[in-house]
Design brief:
Number of domains: 1
Oligomer: single chain
Structural class: alpha+beta
Number of helices: 3
Distance between the termini: 50 Å
Number of strands: 7
Helix content: 25-40%
Length: about 150
């Protein structure tokens, strides 16, 4: 299991070197085995509020059907550079329809990863999480030294 803490700005501007956040690594699954095939990748994303949200990382192709979740669509380059393309939450009762919508949007945007956050308690909380992550993405796209127009 590998977890990484990133802010949207860090992910957007990140070079191939490891992120500056906390990195936790473990290859042991719940049975204590160290099988590489059983490892899951976890990544933390920080919203505009400063709150950390843990996400399970899947390839766009291998993402499983998902119930009511928040997700980030990410394009990850071979060098490790990550670009968040969209933040959203699922709304269908059918997990297969949620997956179909995620894959359609991901393919349209050029994503190759889906980062899934499964801890929203209800639709209202899912919207709050989505907006927090989206606001963080918007903040990271604003130039730091943008001139003020008076």
């Amino acid at each position: 299991m590998c977890a990484q803490v990133l802010k949207f700005r860090q992910a957007k501007e990140r070079a191939p070197a490891p992120a500056t956040g906390t990195i936790l690594q473990s290859t042991a699954d719940s049975n204590g085995r160290g099988d590489q095939a059983d490892t899951a990748t976890l990544q933390f994303w920080i919203g505009a509020s400063g709150k950390r949200y843990i996400h399970t990382v899947h390839s766009l192709i291998d993402c499983p059907e998902v119930p009511h979740v928040n997700y980030l669509l990410v394009r990850k380059e071979d060098c490790g550079f990550q670009t968040v393309l969209a933040a959203g939450h699922t709304t269908n009762r059918a997990a297969s329809l949620n997956l179909a919508e995620i894959r359609r949007l991901g393919a349209t945007l050029g994503a190759n990863e889906v980062h899934v956050h499964m801890l929203a308690g209800d639709d209202k909380q899912a919207k709050v999480i989505e907006h927090d992550l989206r606001a963080s993405q918007l903040q990271s796209s604003i130039p730091e030294s943008s001139p003020s127009h008076h």
